[in-house]
Design brief:
The chain is mainly alpha-helical. The chain folds into 2 domains: 42 residues; 149 residues, Alpha-Beta Complex (Nitrile Hydratase, Chain A). 49% of the residues lie in helices and 11% in strands. The two termini are 26 Å apart.
Length: 202
């Protein structure tokens, strides 16, 4: 993990240098950069996915629609324009159960459902993760701190430009009386990637 952190720090430094150069050369402006950042902070990100999952947890009919026709289910929610664009094309949800755990990976590059999960983390784009997640998903999940019982099937979904997958994680015990807002607050991007489970804060 330390190597991944070092590479992420190095990449971030390169991005900042490139951004400064583009602004200096007049290719973009700082206002443009701020607008893009604001877009992903306020409109497109994991907070959208958390709302979708929370609604699926409390509304069985919505969950069924979400799993059968993800775009049409998302379309009925009050989200900003652009949910079906900007890396949100052809999104598809799969649900974790006691018998099946789902893991999302992109073997080709880093296709990702930005509108519901935000920008992909560095480890998701790492070639080592992409290769190992397909070959030995149970071991990779253990390294994330997630021990999946041998009796539980692990299904790995290769997200791409054709289908951008995300996971509806299992609802944790002890949240039966929670509101959608309370539920959404504990749902993490990692849980919607299949790399973690949702836990109730102590």
């Amino acid at each position: 993990m330390a190597d991944s952190i070092d590479r992420e720090t190095y990449s971030a430094a390169r991005v900042r240098a490139l951004e400064s150069l583009l602004i200096e050369k007049g290719v973009i402006t700082s206002a443009t950069v701020d607008k893009v950042i604001e877009f992903f902070e306020k409109d497109m990100g994991p907070f959208n996915g958390a709302k979708i999952v929370a609604k699926a947890w409390v509304d069985p009919e919505f969950k069924q629609q979400l799993l059968e026709d993800t775009p049409s289910a998302i379309a009925v929610m009050n989200f900003p324009r652009g949910m079906a664009g900007a890396e949100g094309e052809h999104m598809k949800a799969v649900a974790n159960t006691d018998d099946v755990h789902n893991l999302i990976v992109c073997t080709m590059c880093s296709c990702y459902p930005w509108p519901v999960l935000g920008l992909p983390p560095y480890w998701f784009k790492d070639p080592t993760f992409r290769a190992r997640a397909i070959r030995e998903p149970r071991k990779v999940l253990q390294e994330f701190g997630l021990d999946i019982p041998e009796s539980t099937e692990i299904r790995v979904w290769d997200t791409s430009a054709q289908i951008r997958w995300f996971v509806v994680p299992e609802r944790p015990d002890g949240t039966e009386d929670w509101t959608e807002e309370q539920l959404a607050a504990i749902i993490t991007p990692e849980s919607m990637q299949g790399a973690a489970k949702v836990v109730v804060p102590a």
